[in-house]
Specification:
Blueprint: E1 4-11, H1 17-25, H2 28-32, E2 37-44, E3 51-58, H3 61-68, H4 71-83, E4 89-93
Antiparallel strand pairs: 1-3, 1-4, 2-3
């Protein structure tokens, strides 16, 4: 299985930081429910509230392509021009290390 790893970078328009974050977080549950989804997480930059990333792993390119054609992703992408300063930067990565299977430390998020 050739896992497809994607990282999408988003820069919010001034004043749209919270709305962009809410819109990205709304994608998590349905994306994780897709058969081809292995990982789907949203991160916000710790020092710049306007910078967000989506970290995704998919079973195949076909699974990712199918995800991008879902109604909820298409609806989100139609809002991107009003939410973001420019287009998202979506990059594909190849995993080079083994998976870190250590238990997560107890911490406050």
């Amino acid at each position: 299985m050739a896992i497809v790893s994607k990282i999408a970078f988003f820069a919010a328009r001034r004043g749209q930081e919270e709305r962009l974050g809410e819109s990205l977080l709304a994608l998590v549950a349905p994306s994780r429910g897709e058969a081809g989804s292995l990982r789907y997480e949203i991160f916000q930059d710790a020092s710049d509230d306007g910078l967000w990333i989506a970290v995704e792993d998919w079973r195949s390119n076909e699974a990712y392509d199918s995800h991008m054609e879902t109604e909820y992703v298409r609806a989100f992408l139609s809002m991107v021009p009003s939410l973001c300063d420019g287009d998202p930067d979506i990059r594909t990565y190849r995993k080079r290390s083994t998976t870190d299977s250590r238990p997560a430390p107890n911490r406050e998020d």
